[in-house]
Amino acid sequence: EALLSRHEVPLVVTQPDRPAGRGMDLRESAVAARAAAAAVPVIKPGRARDPEVAAQVDAAKPDVVVVAAYGQILPRQLLDVAPHGAINVHASLLPRWRGASPVTAAILAGDPDTGVSIMQMDEGLDTGPVILERATPIGEREDAEGLSSRLAQLGAEGLLEALEAVEAGRAVATAQPEEGATYARLVKKTDGDLEWTLRAQEIERALRAYRPWPGVRLPMGRDERVQVTAGGPVPGWWVNEGHEDLPPGSVAEVTPEGIVVMTSSTPFLVQRVKPAGKREMSAVEYARGRRDLVAPR
C-alpha cells in the first residue's frame, strides 16, 4: 500500500498460493491480492533462486528491489538486478533478532522495545548495512499479532523515507556491529507445547508471542493437553495455605476468575481455554466438566 501510494511498482514477486481455512483451499497472499487489485503483474515462484525469477525481475527494469517478509534468502543475481540494489524491511532493531521470527523472539525474551530496520541487503541472513531504524516500546500485554500490525505501519513509513533518501542520493547505509547480534529461528507448531515447569512469566510471554500461531498448549489434569488462550501470573507471591508444596502442573484451585495452576515460580491463573475439537470457553466452564482437575490434599 505504501509503495503504491508514491511509486510505480512494475512487478510483485510473492509466495505461491497456500492451502488455508477449514477447507484447505488454495489462497493467495495478501500481497498478491493487493497487487492484482492495482493491476500490477504478479509472479509466484517456488524458489527465488531459479534463474528465470531474476530474468523476470530484470525485464521489469526496477530502480530498486524492495523485500518484506519474503521468507527466502535472495541470490546475488536478484540483489544486483536493480541499480540501487535490494532494500529490506525487517521487524527488529538490528543486529538484534536477525532471522525468521523477530517479533515472536522479542516478546519471548521480554524485550522492553523493538522496531523496524530498513537495510541494504547482502547475501547473509539480515546482515546488510542499515539505512534507518525506527524504535517502539512493546506493550506489557501486547501480543505478536498486534505488535506485527504496528511494526508493519512503522516499516511502511520507514521504507518510504529510506527510498526518498536513496532517490535523492543522500542515503547512508551503516554496517551492523556483530556485538549484540542474535538470531530468531523459524517458529514451529510444536514450540507451543509448553510445560508448567517453566516460570509463570515465561508462560505468559509465550501466550502473547505465539498468538495467533501456533498457540500455547499445556497439560491440564492427568492426560489432556489444552490450548490456553488467556491467562497470566497470579499477582504477587500469593499462595493459599496447603498449596505451597504442590509441584508444577498441579491445579491448586478453581476460582471465579479461572483455574490456578502451580508453576516453577508463582501460580498461573488460566482464564480461557480451547480444548481440542471444541470451541473456546472460559476456564471456569471447562473446569465444570473436569472434576479431576484439582490436586488432592
Structure write-up:
The protein contains eight helices and 16 strands. The protein has helices spanning 2-6, 30-37, 51-59, 76-79, 102-108, 144-168, 200-209, 283-288; strands at 12-13, 18-20, 25-27, 42-43, 65-68, 86-90, 98-99, 113-120, 130-137, 183-184, 216-220, 224-233, 251-255, 258-261, 268-274, 281-282. Strands 11, 12, 13, 14, 15 and 16 form a six-stranded antiparallel sheet that branches. It starts with a helix and ends in a 9-residue tail after the last helix. The model has no long low-confidence stretch (mean pLDDT 93).
User: First CA to last CA: what distance?
Assistant: 59 Å
Shape: elongated
Low-confidence stretches: none
Structural class of the helix and strand makeup? alpha+beta
Q: H/E series, N to C? A: HEEEHEHEHEEHEEHEHEEEEEEH
- What radius of gyration results from the CA coordinates? 23 Å
Helix fraction by DSSP (H/I, runs of at least 4): 10-25%
Query: What's the mean pLDDT score?
Result: 93
The fraction of residues in strands falls at: 15-25%
Main sheet properties: 6 strands, antiparallel
Secondary structure tally: strands? 16
**Count, helices:** 8
Q: Tags for this entry?
A:
25% helix, four-stranded mixed sheet, single chain, 297 residues, alpha+beta, elongated, six-stranded antiparallel sheet
Lay out the secondary structure.
Blueprint: H1 2-6, E1 12-13, E2 18-20, E3 25-27, H2 30-37, E4 42-43, H3 51-59, E5 65-68, H4 76-79, E6 86-90, E7 98-99, H5 102-108, E8 113-120, E9 130-137, H6 144-168, E10 183-184, H7 200-209, E11 216-220, E12 224-233, E13 251-255, E14 258-261, E15 268-274, E16 281-282, H8 283-288
